[in-house]
Specification:
Helix content: 40-55%
Strand content: 5-15%
Largest sheet: 3 strands, antiparallel
Strand order of the largest sheet: 2-1-3
Radius of gyration: 18 Å
Order of helices and strands: HHHHHEEEHHHH
Number of domains: 2
């Protein structure tokens, strides 16, 4: 299979006290790793097994019969970005290119944080909060359950898990406290800036051929 098993980019205790070791261990082993193992079992022996993770997500999102597989694959991808969106001793105001784009789009970092928190609070139930690059500007959006901006054509700059398992051990049901901790103590703006820089480089390259999922594909790629 072309998909690497999930891995944490730091030790489980490295985000303390903003995010506890227990939360990361539980979150990684009991959720992301379980999603990966179930995804692997569903594609084993099929044509889907050869696809990289991002293409597996795009293909299965288009096929209603594959939506269980899509959800597992999307949760693996979403979590990979979530881990990289944080770092030990992170947080604070955005800097570099992403800071400039935030000021252009939202007026100030303070207005950005207010909209970020309000969007997180307005998300009903489980889901994800994203900072994405769309139409040459940054946007904040929330998605439900495992849904990912990858299938919308947006480039995800940062991801914040809004499922309760992401914050219940540390904050109980206080989602707002968790979002504040992410912005003040965890977010990795250097990662966001690297993502923007890579996006600028890729935009100068020749356009990649986009594969269209046809009706024939939908039938042929059905996992049995």
């Amino acid at each position: 299979m072309n998909i690497e098993p999930p891995a944490m980019p730091y030790d489980f205790a490295d985000l303390e006290p903003a995010m506890s070791r227990d939360t990361l261990v539980f979150h990684f082993l009991r959720h992301q790793r379980v999603c990966f193992d179930r995804m692997l079992a569903m594609v084993r022996g099929s044509e889907l097994e050869a696809l990289p993770l991002d293409e597996l997500i795009r293909v299965t999102e288009c096929i209603p019969a594959q939506h269980t597989l899509y959800r597992y694959a999307a949760e693996v991808w979403n979590h990979n970005l979530f881990w990289r969106s944080m770092r030990p001793r992170g947080g604070g105001a955005a800097h570099g290119a992403v800071g400039e784009h935030i000021r252009t789009r939202f007026g100030s970092y303070e207005r950005f944080t207010r909209e970020f928190k309000e969007t997180a609070s307005a998300q009903f139930g489980s889901g994800w909060l994203w900072l994405v690059w769309r139409d040459d500007a940054l946007e904040i959006l929330a998605t439900s359950n495992a849904a990912t901006p990858l299938v919308r054509g947006d480039t995800a700059i940062l991801a914040l898990d809004l499922w309760e398992h992401a914050y219940y051990l540390d904050h109980q049901n206080r989602r707002a406290a968790y979002v504040s901790a992410f912005l003040e103590e965890l977010v990795d703006w250097d990662f966001a800036n690297r993502t923007l820089a890579n996006l600028a480089v890729s935009s100068d390259a020749p356009a990649a051929r986009v594969r269209t999922v046809t009706e024939t594909d939908r039938g042929r790629l059905s996992v049995r």
